[in-house]
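tokens incoming
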């Protein structure tokens, strides 16, 4: 359509400063909200149904069978759209960096392994991370671990760094130092100051306690000191830009192989 990423971001109503979010959608690493999916379909003149199906995966957990069926259907439809886009580019001579539907090798990574939870390096943002996970955690085992305390939605695990562990350590752990922090990415985000969260801060993701007053997200010990940092967050969408998800459990189990 001749649009840059910034122009597309503005056209779908999320602002020209949200280029990284549009890029993440373009690479298949994060689905859009349903309203954004509607506008993407309209602006890019794409079929609505696959985009809306994709947006539904943002909030609704899937069983293994459902995830695999949806993955096959969605990847087929996006592959068709991608082939059409490439033919259009070749015929029009448009540059390759013009925004359009594209699926990266890591698209739908969570659905590809519905019974495994990818382990990311400390500080990695799951919406932009392009490398192979460090390993995997067994999802059924993790669900047994947390019991009825939380639902796992789009979960990722982080290799627990010393800095993150110091921020999270409010009580002594009888099993020694945990290996990983398990993060659930359910939406809408509901901040509980008694629970830790994975938060985007200074270009990386940190694990910390926080509080939200509908105006600012206050992150405790964001820089590993006794103070706090205030991040602007007047809306749920602004909160989502700061918060990856909630830390629902710490894990002592060794991961499975990354292959």
């Amino acid at each position: 359509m001749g649009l840059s990423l910034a122009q597309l971001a503005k056209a779908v109503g999320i602002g020209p400063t949200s280029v990284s979010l549009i890029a993440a959608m373009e690479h298949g690493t994060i689905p859009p909200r349903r309203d954004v999916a509607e506008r993407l379909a309209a602006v890019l003149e794409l079929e609505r149904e696959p985009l809306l199906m994709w947006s539904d995966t943002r909030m609704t957990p899937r069983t293994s069978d459902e995830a695999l069926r949806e993955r096959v259907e969605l990847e087929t439809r996006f592959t068709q759209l991608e082939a059409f886009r490439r033919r259009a580019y070749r015929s029009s001579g448009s540059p390759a960096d013009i925004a359009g539907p594209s699926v990266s090798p890591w698209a739908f990574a969570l659905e590809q392994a519905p019974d495994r939870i990818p382990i990311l390096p400390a500080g990695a943002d799951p919406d932009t991370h392009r490398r192979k996970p460090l390993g995997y955690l067994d999802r059924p085992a993790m669900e047994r671990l947390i019991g009825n305390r939380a639902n796992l939605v789009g979960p990722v695990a982080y290799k627990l760094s010393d800095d993150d562990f110091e921020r999270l350590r409010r009580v002594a752990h009888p099993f020694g130092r945990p290996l990983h922090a398990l993060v659930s990415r359910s939406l809408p985000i509901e901040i509980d100051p008694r629970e830790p969260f994975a938060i985007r801060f200074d270009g990386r993701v940190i694990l910390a306690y926080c509080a939200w007053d509908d105006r600012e997200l206050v992150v405790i010990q964001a820089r590993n000191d006794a103070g706090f940092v205030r991040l602007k967050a007047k809306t749920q969408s602004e909160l989502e830009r700061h918060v990856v998800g909630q830390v629902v459990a710490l894990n002592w189990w060794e991961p499975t192989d990354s292959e």
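note: Residues 115-251 form a domain with the Umud Fragment, subunit A fold (CATH 2.10.109.10).
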